[in-house]
Amino acid sequence: MDPLKHGFRQVHLDFHTNPLIPGVGSKFDAKAFARTAKNAHVDSVTVFAKCHHGHLYFDTKHPSRHPTLPKGFNLLRAQIDALHAEGIRAPIYVSVELDEFAANAHPEWLALNPNGSPVGFGPLEAGWRFLDLASPYLDYMQDQLAEVLDMFPSADGFFFDIMIDQPSVSKWAKERMARWGLDPTLERDRSRYGYRIVLHAMDSISRQVKAACPKATVYFNSRPFHYLPSDVKYLTHIEIESLPSGSWGYTYFPLNIRYARTFGKPCLGMTARFHKGWADFGGLKHKAALKYEVSQMISHGARCSIGDQMNPVGTLDKAAWDLIGHAYAHVEASQPWCEDAKQVTQIALFRTPVEQATVLDPMSKPDAGAVRMLTQLRHQFDVVSYETDLKDYQLLILPDRIPVDTKYALKLTGFLKEGGTILATGTSGLDAMLKRILPSLPVVQATLSPFTTTYVRYNKKLFPDLPATDHVNYVPTLRVKGMKSAKILARIVEPYFERSHEHFCSHFQTPAAKLTKWPAALQRGSVGYIPFPVFSAYAEHGNLHYKKLVDGCIQQLIGRPMLETNAPSYAETSVMRQGKSTVVHFLAYCPERRAEGLDIIEDEVPLYNTTLSLALSEKPRKAYLAPSRKEIDFTYADGRVEAVVPEIEGHQMVVFE
Q1: How much is the pTM?
Q2: What CATH superfamily classification does 9-339 receive?
C-alpha cells in the first residue's frame, strides 16, 4: 500500500520555540486547531515532538520538556488526537543534529571544527550548534524517540530533520574515525566520517522506528539528493524541501523532483507560506505564487506540503491558513487526475556529480542551465545518475563536465546498441587529457582554444529560425577534429586576437574574423557533440542561440519532440500517464526579480487559444479540460493528437482519454 495515499495536501507545522517564551500551548484549542486544518483542505499535518531548541512538547519527566508548557499538558497528544478525529494524518517531527538544550547541558557532545571551535553559530551569534552523532548524544536522542514510540505505537509517520554530513574532530569522532581507518588530519577523511556517521544514525533510527511502529512513514531531511542511491533504503518516501522564495530558487524543485521520482517511491514537494524563508513571521506569500508552487508539484507527480509555524501559545494564523486553503482547494479539485500518475519522458539528463555534497545541494551551472533550457523547449525529461537504468529513454544528455569511466562507457555503448542516442557537451566523454573515453563520441582529437570568446556560425538549413549572423560564444571552447563521417551542424568563428592589455578592440570582446574548420556542433549517427559547456553558458548568459543549438541537436537525434505548443517560453508543461489517460499540464506563471535576491510571483498570466500537439500511440476517445471536465475538440493523424486550449489561467490540465 502506498504509505502516503492519504497525505496529498500536507502542512509542515514548525514549532521551534525558545524556552524564554511564556505560556507555550496555553491557548491551544483542539477543535479549532483541527477545524482550521479541515477547512483549509489539509489532509496531513506534521506536528512537533522535539524542536531545534531541544525541547519536548509532550508529557514527560525528561528535563528537556519545554519549561513553559503547562504542567500535565501533552500538546503533541492533543494535536494528534484532534487531527485524527477529523480524519487528518499527523506525522511526528523530531530534530536530530540540532538540539540547543543538549548543547548547553553537554557541550562535550558538540561537533568540533579542526581548530577546536564548535560547529555552527558562535557564542555571540543567534543560531544553532551541531551535535556530534558519534557522541552519547545519539543514544540521548533515541531515548527521547523511544518515549514517543511508546506513546504513539500507531504513529502515522516520522520526519527526522537535520541529518547533515557533519565532519567533526571531537574525541568521539576521532575514536570512530580510528575504528573506520580514517585520518582526522585529512579533510577528505573528515568528510567521509560525516557521511558514514549519518548513515549509521539513519540505520539505527530507522530500525528503532520499524521495530516499534512498522507501518509508520519515515523520512530523513536535509540530505543532499546526490545521496539518494544510498539513502533511499531508509526512506518510505522522498520529500523535497524547496522554499523558492528563500535559498532554493524556482529551479531547485524541478531539478530534484525529476531525479527523485526515478527511484520509484512516493514524492512530496515542500514549500512554505512565508514570503521569504522559514519562520518569516508576518511574511505571507502571494496567492498566485503558492498556487504555482503546489501546481508545479502535482504536475510532476508529487504530493504537496506547505510549511507554517504555529504561534507559541498554540494558535494558528488565520491569514496564513486562508492562503494555504486557497492553494489546497485547487490541489483537491485537481487531485483525481494526479493520484498515481506517472511521468512520460523521452530524455534523460545526467545530473552533474559533486565532489562533496552539502545540505542545500547547490545547483551547478550545467544542471541549472539544462533544466531551464529543456523546460523552455517543452522537452519531457528525467534527471539521472550512474545507477539509473536508461532503457526507457530515447536520449541521454551528458551536460558539460560528466566524467565517463570505462565501466560507464560500456553501459552507454549498450544503451546505443539498444537504439538510444546521446548528446554530450563540453568535456563530457573526454578524459583529463581531452582524449576520447566514450568510444562513440565523434571526436578524433581535442585541444583547448586559445580564445576565451569565440563565435558560432550556424547551418541555415538546420537552424532557419536563427538570424544569419555570427553569434557570440561567451565561454571557452575546444578545437575539435571530428570523425570524417560526422556531420557538422555549426562552426566556430574565431576573433582577430585575444583581448588583453596589449591589444583590445572597443568595449567588450574582439569582433569575429575567421570562419574555422572547428565544429561548434557535430553528429555521427546516434551521438551528437557540442565542444563547449553550452548549458553552463545558458545558465550564466541566457543567450537564445545556445538554446536553439541544443534544440537543433536534439531534433537531429530523436526527431520531433513528444509535445509541441505555441505557449510562451515561460509557460511550463509536463506529460503524465494515469491509467489509460494522458494528462498534459500547463503552468502559466512568470516569476519576476522584484526584490534583491528574490523572485516574486504576484499574478497569474492568462493564455488564450494555446495549441498543443502530442504524440500518442492511439486516437483518444475524448479530450477535456480538468478539473472543469469541459470537452474540447481535437484531431488525430500520424500518431499525434492536435488541440487548442481556449484559456489557461495559472494551471490547466488537458486530459486525453
Answers
A1: 0.95
A2: Glycosidases (3.20.20.80)
